[in-house]
Amino acid sequence: MPWISRRLAFSTLGCPGMPLHDVAALALGAGWRGLELRSAPDEPVHVGLSEAGRRAALDALDGLSTLCVASYVKIASGQRSDEQCVADLLAEAGLAADLGARAVRVFPGGDDEHADARAIARLRAAAPRLPSGVEIWLETHDSHPRGEDLRRILSQVHDPRVRAIWDVRHPWAGGESVADTARALAPWLAHVQLKDSADADRTPLLLGTGAVPLREILHTLRADGYDGWYSLEWERKWHPGIVPLADALIAGRDWLATLDTAV
Question: Which Gene3D superfamilies match (predicted)?
Fold first, then answer.
């Protein structure tokens, strides 16, 4: 029974600005049936979308699983007040609810010694006000790249609706072992983002062709009983010279299938 290929997803970061009907066709054609929808003014999905626009987006994505709205809310940043940050987060969560998404992705974005306390307070404030069925997923990223960094925050929030995304490159690049990341995130792990790259270069490489220890990560997740989605974050928005997402999806699907069939 496939343990990876049955739950493959990708982020629309890999196809910036693509109309949602075309995104859906790409997903269904490549066999990747889950989506992370990037929420930004230059995308088809954003918080300014009208009620009619949200209904149209939902119709366009029929047949796919919308996993999260990938927001750019920075939950630990001191650049916005607590009230503004929580309001931004809840606006993105409302968009997620309207699009049938399970969660809204947020970044840490810490910029001073108060980052952890700020993030904890804001997550505690936002969680009880979330729309029904929507969670907050905090990603291993920027100021908090390791599993241990997220653990310091999530262990203090005490709300089952606040969970973690394991972006596999950041903890590895931050020097954290796969076993330590898995252990730190285990109580909260909701979602896994896959990517590959060379040691000192952030430019995305096709899965299995770089230095990120993907085999070890994936086998650790399997051993730990992870049953969520595996999402390719193909960062073509930030690296326009890399191959198109369609090619990365085909190559990634084929490489992941070798793990599905391995003993």
Answer: Divalent-metal-dependent TIM barrel enzymes
Domain count, the chain: 1
Range of the structural domain that residue 209 is part of: 5-261
**Identity of the residue numbered 238:** W
pLDDT per position as a tens digit, 190-248:
999 999 999 888 999 999 999 999 999 999 999 999 999 999 999 999 999 999 999 99
CA distance 154 to 160: 10
Using CA atoms in the order 91, 163, 60, 14, what is the torsion angle rounded to 10 degrees? 100
Which CATH number fits the domain that encloses residue 44? 3.20.20.150
